[in-house]
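Hi V.,

Quick status before I head out on leave. The structure for the redesign project is tokenized and pasted below; the design run finished overnight.
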């Protein structure tokens, strides 16, 4: 391992609070910019001390946040990205032992003991808490791995955990770094967590991740198909996102394995081996939820096993999350054999979970275009294709023409309104940049207060009886609260009109002004409650949405979601009257964005209704609809 910390161009951009392109410009324009000390010509790395000195001399160095310091220490100790996992696991292990009151292991063990990385992680944990600190560094680790590794996206993990329901014992036989087991903890009442992964380093990361949340996790290393670490376990829920890309899964050695009660998995379809492995570990009344490649629903080689899963009643639902990913919900057959299979296509989490719950009490469920309880007898044809879309009912045609005209009128009115919503702004004659101030400083002097939603959704979600809950997606899309929940304690913050709510994902950042009181602030959201005599909320929300603030205040924690450290954002220091002038422009722009989204939605609806009306004969082109210059077909 190298002694001196190194940084990439992306890291330098974070240190200076600029974009990646700015660092490239500095390298071209400044001959004294530090020379690379390693990496590749495309992705060079630089010595951190040299970079810090140069940035400081140029007046470009910000105070290094504790999380960035921890990340740089971790990278310095690892030496290269291939060693990051082991160093992070060691630092995390030292943190877990310290929290448990144990003496950290000696440096001769595989852990880093009280190394620089462990010290830096401990410092970050002192500010953020152990689990959030480790989650941050784990997110950076996944980011550094790029295409070399992958993790179950958090939104997919949340859907799978919700489908599994409440469970005392949860098993993940291909647990990776623990995404599904973590989701099971956040979703419900899991009391015992069991996991196994073939990669020792990944299993070590999962061990630390779960140990910082719970003390009941048991993570083993090994290949679950060839060397099952929990052969006698019958879990209430099995969650699994298996490594389907591994084709040497043991087909020849496991030909006579008793787990294959639905048929010997084809050599090139390891997913059907994992499905049966999951079913073998489900207790009576329990549930297995397995993430599947979409092609597994229709491959001819797997037809016999799909047939047996349907006939036995083991397969209960197939849910298309996208064109490439499905979720299969399975139960060990007992009692009366079901006669239908639930199929869902391209729905959001709330719809998927509520539809699954409704289906259990309504075997004739049918929501055209979205979900349907398909008779199993209809699926047992030559192909046994379980792709949901072809099996869904189409929307009834009796009102297609009427709905088309209604949508046409709404869209026409909205298009007429759009132009009038654009704010009246012009280029500034004086291009001098206004002095700015950190949000942290505004909080210190009492111009606003900063609030953060609880990091874990450990309260029970509920349906119509719960309180409205604002989600990250609601803020990004500029829509009202779409979720509901019943808070279990007083940590949940009720939003007020005039509050500024901030959300981030790996690709988008948004700040919105709350228009009405009452909704709860959801997980991964930040809230600024301003003094309206000193800060205009619409002005503040507008400038927080700038590209610079999106870069400096969003910290990516997983592949798709981000944590907002809004204290690091800046806003121009302007008199309140001038803020309000800008606030009007930002408010009109927000209304324009909302109307534009509605326009796109109505346009898509019109296109679908036109296709439906043409297909069922309820719509015909108006006379003169085809211009004379167009060829008539």
């Amino acid at each position: 391992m190298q002694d001196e910390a190194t940084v990439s161009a992306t890291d330098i951009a974070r240190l200076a609070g600029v974009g990646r392109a700015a660092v490239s410009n500095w390298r071209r324009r400044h001959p004294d910019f530090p020379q690379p000390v390693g990496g590749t010509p495309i992705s060079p790395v630089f010595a951190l001390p040299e970079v810090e000195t140069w940035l400081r001399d140029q007046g470009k160095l910000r105070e290094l946040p504790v999380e960035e310091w921890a990340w740089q220490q971790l990278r310095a100790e690892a030496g290269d990205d291939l060693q990051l996992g082991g160093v992070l696991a060691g630092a995390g292990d030292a943190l877990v032992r310290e929290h448990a009151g144990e003496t950290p292991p000696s440096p001769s063990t595989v852990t880093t003991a009280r190394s620089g990385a462990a010290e830096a992680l401990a410092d970050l944990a002192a500010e953020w808490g152990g689990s959030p600190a480790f989650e941050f560094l784990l997110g950076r680790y996944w980011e550094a791995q790029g295409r070399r590794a992958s993790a179950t996206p958090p939104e997919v993990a949340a859907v799978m955990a919700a489908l599994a329901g409440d469970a005392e014992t949860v098993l993940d036989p291909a647990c990776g770094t623990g995404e599904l087991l973590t989701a099971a903890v956040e979703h419900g009442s899991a009391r015992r967590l069991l996991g196994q992964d073939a990669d020792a380093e990944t299993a070590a990361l999962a061990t630390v991740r779960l140990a910082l949340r719970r003390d009941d996790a048991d993570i083993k290393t090994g290949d679950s198909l060839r060397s099952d670490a929990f052969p006698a376990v019958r879990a209430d829920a099995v969650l699994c996102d298996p490594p389907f890309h591994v084709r040497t899964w043991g087909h020849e050695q496991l030909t006579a394995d008793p787990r294959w009660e639905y048929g010997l998995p084809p050599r090139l379809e390891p997913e059907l081996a994992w499905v049966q492995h999951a079913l073998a570990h489900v207790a009576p009344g329990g549930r297995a939820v397995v993430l599947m490649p979409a092609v597994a629903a229709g491959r001819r080689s797997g037809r016999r096993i799909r047939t047996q899963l349907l006939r036995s009643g083991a397969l209960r639902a197939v849910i298309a999350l996208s064109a490439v990913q499905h979720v299969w919900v399975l139960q060990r057959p007992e009692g009366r054999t079901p006669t239908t299979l639930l199929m869902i296509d391209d729905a959001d989490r709330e719809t998927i979970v509520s539809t699954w719950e409704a289906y259990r009490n309504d075997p004739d469920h049918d929501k055209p275009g979205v979900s349907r309880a398909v008779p199993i007898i209809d699926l047992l044809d030559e192909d046994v294709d379980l792709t949901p879309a072809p099996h869904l009912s189409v929307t009834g045609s009796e009102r297609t023409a009427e709905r088309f005209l209604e949508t046409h009128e709404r869209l026409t009115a909205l298009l007429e309104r759009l132009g009038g919503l654009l704010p009246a702004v012009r280029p500034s004659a004086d291009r001098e940049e206004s002095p700015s101030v950190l949000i942290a400083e505004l909080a210190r002097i009492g111009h606003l207060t900063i609030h953060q939603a609880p990091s874990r959704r450990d309260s029970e979600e509920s349906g119509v009886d719960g309180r409205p809950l604002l989600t990250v997606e609601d803020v990004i899309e500029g829509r009202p609260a779409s979720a509901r929940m019943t808070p279990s304690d007083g940590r949940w913050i009720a939003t007020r009109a005039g509050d500024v709510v901030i959300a981030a994902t790996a690709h988008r950042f948004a700040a919105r002004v709350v228009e009405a009181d009452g909704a709860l602030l959801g997980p991964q959201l930040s809230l600024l409650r301003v003094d309206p005599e000193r800060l205009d909320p619409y002005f503040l929300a507008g400038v927080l949405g700038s590209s610079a603030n999106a870069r400096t205040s969003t910290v990516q924690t997983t592949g798709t979601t981000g944590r907002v450290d809004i204290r690091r954002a800046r806003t121009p220091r302007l008199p309140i009257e001038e803020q309000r002038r800008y606030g009007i422009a930002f408010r009109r722009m927000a209304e324009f964005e909302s109307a534009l989204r509605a326009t796109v939605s109505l346009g898509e609806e019109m296109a679908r209704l036109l296709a439906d009306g043409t297909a069922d004969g309820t719509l015909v082109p108006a006379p003169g609809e085809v211009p004379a210059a167009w060829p008539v077909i």
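Above is the designed sequence. Residues 103-113, 456-465 have pLDDT under 50 and may be disordered.

G. will cover questions while I'm gone.

Best,
W.
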